[in-house]
Design brief:
The complex is a heterodimer.
Chain A lengths: L10 H4 L2 H21 L1 H17 L6 H26 L7 H15 L11 H23 L5 H19 L10 H8 L1 E2 L2 E2 H19 L1 H18 L4 H27 L11 H11 L10 H20 L4 H19 L12
Antiparallel strand pairs in A: 1-2
Chain B lengths: L2 E12 L2 E12 L3 E6 L5 H8 L7 E6 L2 E3 L4 H6 L2 E4 L11 H6 L7 E2 L2 E2 L1 H14 L15 H13 L9 E6 L7 H14 L3 E6 L3 H7 L2 E6 L2 E7 L5 H9 L20 E10 L3 E9 L3 E5 L6 H8 L7 E6 L2 E3 L4 H7 L1 E4 L3 H5 L6 H6 L15 H14 L16 H13 L6 E5 L7 H16 L3 E5 L3 H7 L2 E6 L2 E6 L9 H8 L1
Parallel strand pairs in B: 3-10, 3-11, 6-9, 9-10, 15-20, 15-21, 18-19, 19-20
Antiparallel strand pairs in B: 1-2, 1-4, 4-5, 7-8, 11-12, 13-14, 13-16, 16-17, 21-22
The chains are: A mainly alpha, B alpha/beta.
Chain lengths: 348, 505
């Protein structure tokens, strides 16, 4: 057993500069093609910006761009977590329940107006741990008991919503910890800590996706799970890992919501699931798995948030806003998956 | 030379079938062992047992003298046995390097993160072994089929550093989808491999097996019927051992010469498929068999797919039974009476896991129902049973799973899916004999010949020149997407193989 020989200190590996050049060339070519293929979502985003900018000059103001980024922070955190699950070809529908539960846990454990607990930062740790545990439980039920992830997480959505309602005290807890609420209130360069946190998370997630086994094997599972299993990879562990990340980040989204609204709310997660999944798909992360990634999903988040913001800015009929959103999403998904069209490609 | 791997009285029983019956086999060091047999003779099962995909029901396997039993391909790999798959086992969206090492314990990752440069350097060493000049960080789905096969080989060879002693490398029909030059390059690799490993090589082409092997085992009906040493046998003897009948005359000659004045069934004018085919024009008469051939990338397959409406875009004029038609999707083609048997049988032609009957009646079953709305199981089955008998499809029952039949019988079942259609008048066959042994091939050809005599028009893409001249009435040679030559009345005056090859390259 000389595993060390497998990696190269063999001179013959270095002795071929010509090949190195060819390799780099091919890589550049690959990136070029990749950009072209994933241009659909970015083009959608730019088009939308142009249209709204034409309709209302306020749209491109610094203040509005900051507002867009602020409202993108929480959906981005959800979408990043969701990406790890979708890339494997699974789905997690429990986001709204998990976020609500994390929100309630945090607001009753941190200094608040109702309960006597004050764990400080410990409250954040507990809420995050709850999200992580539920995510890992989702993954375990799905991977080891072979239940469809759609049903497992649908059930978990209800379970966590119920738990959140159960934990909700008699009165709505007002969060008194000023440092925590300050996360959303204090601005640096016009942006709150939430935005910086989301950007940092996106960076870390991107590295994990491209460099870590969890990310790379996740793509492989999405492409052909049976082959990965036959290669002796512990597929179930990677599935649990992806769901745990997703649950943890969804919990974080619930915590960030608490910072934004300053109170505990058993329905705080409401409205997080749809933008989370839709953003991924708009950005080009396929529900069938194996394609897309964190950056794709972030573009998708920006498309959705920009759209919502633009509709408000241009004074579109609020009753029509949802319908318009729906239409734009259909168009955006069509644009982002156009390059995949084949007569024999199966989409489910 | 001592035995690296020996099998003693290996048997494998599947429910209802004895796939391998008391097989003895010995693989010596530095040896290439050819393994031949008809479809269903047990070659693949034997490979899968050695490779750890199946476990033997009885018997003993010894590797380097000590008994072994593999519960999974991974265990076999760790013992130094690698299978170069016929269906490929690479994951398209991972890089070459990631694929090479996905099934091996390595130290390329630290805290769960890959150290790319180390991994790529190590991959380059493995790729050098097979003389494959691609960057290790290229995603596999950007490689050609032949390149991917080389990566498969490199993946097996990278076991060398993990295992003491020689490797056992199993090739399950590696040549069936390669071009002649690619086959030559594969053979060079196999000969180099002999230096440090032993090889088992399966192919349906006798000349190939004889060219590359030191010794040949012949399997028939799950039994080892003969062992021959290279130089003491010839293709005809091997063929006879395999099927027990003489080679010549296995494909019947055409009974009636094609009718010169037969009405035109299909007229293709200036067919262009972007990037694949340019300005190809030809006619197909009723009852005519038109063979298309060309080297890989010549566009013959794309012509077939365009006629059936599966190419994503094509231009040009297609006239069918005298009327101009636009075939933009398979269901449109089927509506006109055109059927298509794809080259990728496992991926495109059969519904794995469903029964023979379900596969045969999926397209035209409703023709036997009530007014096209309700199906009649009884009439469907009667018709399916009829074709099972006519084409001599060997299946335990109509309800047997299609993927458990041998390749030749699968292909005949796929063919009969179309023959069930009463309105079928043109059948397009893309590499219909791929993966079929000579006996199954002859059966299939006789079936096709008979259908043509009954008036069905056939367009097919052949694998070999022999196939082309045996079956075709007209041969069209394609080169770089263009029609380079046509040979008429092939059955009356056979063109020489040299002439056809000259038009191909």
């Amino acid at each position: 057993m000389t595993q060390a020989q497998l990696h190269a200190h063999d001179p013959s590996a270095m002795a071929s500069p010509r090949r190195g050049e060819a390799g780099t060339q091919r890589r550049y070519w690959h990136i070029g093609l990749g950009v072209l293929k994933s241009a659909g979502p970015i083009v959608s985003l730019l088009l939308m910006v142009l249209v709204f900018a034409g309709l209302t000059p306020n749209f491109v103001s610094i203040a509005n761009l900051q507002a867009i980024l602020e409202s993108a922070a929480v959906p981005a955190v959800v979408a990043i977590g969701m990406t790890f699950v979708l890339v494997q070809g699974s789905i997690d529908l429990s986001a709204e329940g998990v976020a609500s539960l994390a929100n309630i846990l945090l607001s009753i454990l941190i200094a608040n107006s109702v309960t006597a607990h004050d764990l400080g930062a410990g409250a954040i740790v507990v809420a995050l741990a709850a999200g992580l545990t539920i995510g890992a439980l989702n993954g375990t039920l799905y991977a080891y008991l072979r239940m469809p992830s759609l049903i497992v997480t649908l059930a978990m959505w209800l379970i966590t919503l119920g738990l959140a309602a159960l934990l909700f005290p008699s009165r709505q807890p007002q969060i008194l910890d000023s440092g925590f609420v300050g996360l959303a209130l204090h601005k640096h360069l016009g942006l709150s800590a939430l935005v910086y946190l989301a950007v940092a998370l996106a960076f870390v997630a991107f590295i994990v996706e491209r460099r870590a086994k969890l990310g790379r094997i996740g793509f492989a599972i999405g492409a052909d799970e049976a082959l990965v299993r036959l290669a002796g990879v512990n597929v179930n562990a990677y599935k649990v890992g992806a769901f745990a990340i997703c649950g943890c980040l969804t919990g974080l989204a619930g915590i960030l919501t608490a910072a934004q609204i300053g109170v505990g709310n058993p329905l705080a997660g409401e409205g997080l699931l749809f933008p989370g999944i839709a953003a991924c798909v708009i950005g080009g992360t396929l529900l069938s798995g194996g394609r897309g990634g964190v950056l794709h999903s972030l573009v998708g988040v920006l498309v959705l948030v920009t759209l919502r913001n633009g509709l408000v800015q241009t004074g579109a009929n609020p009753l029509l806003q949802k319908a318009i959103e729906g239409v734009v999403i259909v168009v955006a998904v069509a644009a982002s998956t156009w390059h995949l069209r084949r007569k024999t490609r199966v989409v489910k | 030379m001592s035995a690296l791997l020996s099998l003693q009285s290996i048997s494998k029983r599947f429910p209802g079938v004895l796939a391998l019956d008391d097989i003895d086999m010995e693989l010596r060091q530095h040896e290439v062992l050819g393994l031949i047999g008809q479809n269903g003779s047990g070659k693949s099962t034997l490979m899968k047992i050695i490779g750890g995909l199946h476990q033997p029901s009885a018997g003993e396997m010894r590797l380097r003298g000590s008994p072994v039993r593999f519960g999974s391909p991974l265990e076999a790999a760790r013992a130094g046995i690698g299978l170069v798959h016929q269906e490929q086992s690479l994951i398209g969206n991972l890089t070459v390097a990631e694929n090479l090492f996905i099934d091996k314990p390595t130290d390329f990752s630290r805290f769960g993160f890959y150290r790319r440069s180390r991994m790529n350097d190590a991959a380059r060493i493995q790729l050098d072994k097979v003389e494959l000049d691609v960057a290790p960080d290229t995603p596999v789905d950007q490689l050609t089929f032949a390149q991917r096969q080389m990566v498969e080989l490199a993946k097996v060879l990278s076991l060398e550093e993990l295992v003491e002693g020689h490797l056992v490398v199993l090739f399950d029909e590696p040549t069936s989808v390669l071009t002649p030059t690619e086959i030559q390059s594969l053979f060079r690799q196999v000969r180099r491999l002999k230096m440090r490993s032993s090889v088992v090589f399966i192919s349906h082409r006798m000349d190939e097996v004889l060219a590359i092997s030191d010794r040949v085992y012949v399997l028939s009906d799950g039994r080892n019927v003969a062992e021959r040493v290279k130089g003491e046998t010839d293709p005809d003897e091997l063929y006879e051992l395999m099927v027990g009948r003489q080679r010549a005359g296995s494909v019947l000659p055409r009974s009636n010469p094609p009718d010169k004045n037969a009405p035109k069934r299909l007229a293709v004018r200036d067919l262009t498929v972007p990037g694949k085919v340019e300005d190809v024009s030809f006619d197909v008469a009723s009852g005519e068999i038109v063979g298309l051939i060309g080297v890989q990338g010549s566009g013959a397959e794309a012509v077939c797919r365009a006629i059936f409406g599966v190419e994503d875009s094509h231009s040009g004029h297609i006239e069918y039974e005298g009327r101009p038609v636009r075939v933009s999707c398979p269901s449109g083609a089927v509506g006109l009476g055109i059927g298509y048997v794809p080259a990728e049988r496992k991926a495109e032609a059969m519904m794995k896991g469903m029964s023979v009957c379900q596969n045969m009646t999926v397209t035209f079953g409703s023709d036997y129902g009530y007014g096209g709305l309700l199906l009649s199981k009884r009439r469907e089955r009667r018709e399916a049973a009829n074709w099972v008998e006519r084409l001599k499809i060997k299946t335990p029952s109509l309800d047997h799973r299609i993927d458990q039949l041998s390749g030749g019988n699968q292909q005949k079942a796929v063919l009969s899916k179309w023959l069930l259609g009463r309105s079928l008048r043109l059948l397009v066959l893309d590499h219909p004999t791929r993966g079929l042994d000579p006996g199954a091939r002859a059966d299939l050809f006789n079936a096709i010949r008979r259908l043509a005599e009954e008036g069905l028009s056939i367009v097919f893409v052949g694998d070999t020149l022999d196939e082309m001249v045996t079956l075709s009435d007209t041969i069209l040679v394609l080169r770089d997407g263009r029609l380079s030559q046509r040979f008429d009345d092939v059955q009356a005056k056979r063109p020489s193989e040299e002439d056809i090859v000259r038009a191909m390259v």
